[in-house]
């Protein structure tokens, strides 16, 4: 029976051909034998019946073998192919014999095993792609939100830098004006110092002239004193002369009176000049102090002017630096806006990939696999980052590809 189960189709047809050949040869032989010999017709008919029966038995055995080994397995194979056509890969294909049908069953079982393995891997890969696409989409969404928030912050920073640049530029202009005013104040202070120096020199000259006037008044006082003495002597001599010297005595009295008046006037002028000299000396001292103060003021204003020049130069450098920083922030803002648009496009592409993975998974879900199907391990889904609040994105969404839904027959 095992040999009959392993009998090939070719062998079956050869046996049938041999049976019919033997039948024909047997009938022909019996006919020839009957012609050449005197055999009764009943015996010939019996031989023919035996040959026909033997042939029918052999053909029946062959047909039974063909039915068992070919027709029924082919029917089961057709049923299995019909299940396979519906996507049911869960029914295993049993292996039968070593003939053509057995090899066909073995090839079908191997094909189903490979198909189950492939479908399982594709299903798991779809799940992994779906998980990865979901994680990428979520991550890109979060990154887009953060990038947009950073872009908004950079816009605010750029606006603040614009205001700061304007303020620094205004400070630089004010520093330049203050430096110019300090230079003018230095010139005015220098001229004031020169004027005070001239006043001090004039006060010293007046004081010197006052001392010279006092010296002259001393000489006038001395002359008046001597004139008074001479007038007294003249009066004494006139008194000695008696009547003849009376007129001379009158003149001497007048001269004495004039000398006294000259002495009094000289004393009054001396007192006045002394008071004036004291005031001139006090004014000269004050003028000296004023000159020293003006010199200190000139020195301080000069130092202030130098500091204002340094402040103006530093403000100019600061203005230049702030301008460069403002340009850099503006460029960063533009780049960040572009990055936000690109990230939004990447997020849209990830969502489109997620939809494609969902569609592919729904297509692969048509197949039903058995529990022993080999499947690749699922990768863990990446945890999405917490989304940050940001302004709406201005990026254009990426166009979604139309999914070409493949039928399972094409698969």
What does this structure look like?
- It is a single chain.
- 82% of the residues lie in helices and 1% in strands.
- It has 5 helices and 2 strands, in the order αααβααβ.
- Helix 2 runs antiparallel to helix 3 and helix 4 packs antiparallel against helix 5.
- It is rod-shaped.
- The chain starts with a helix and ends in a 42-residue tail after the last strand.
- The C terminus is likely disordered.
CATH classification class of the domain at 151-334: Mainly Alpha
Query: What percentage of amino acids are in beta strands?
Result: under 5%
Distance between the termini: 41 Å
Reading the helices and strands in chain order gives: HHHEHHE
Quick one: CATH superfamily of the domain at 151-334? Methyl-accepting chemotaxis protein
Low-confidence parts: 374-411
Which architecture name of the domain at 151-334 does CATH use?
Answer: Orthogonal Bundle
Structural class: mainly alpha
Structural shape: rod-shaped
| Count of DSSP strands | 2
On the 0-100 scale, what is the average pLDDT? 73
Radius of gyration: 70 Å
Q: Give a short account of the largest sheet.
A: 2 strands, parallel
Percent helix, as a range, is over 70%
Spatial order of the strands forming the largest sheet: 1-2
What count of helical segments does DSSP give? 5
CATH topology of the domain at 151-334: Helix Hairpins
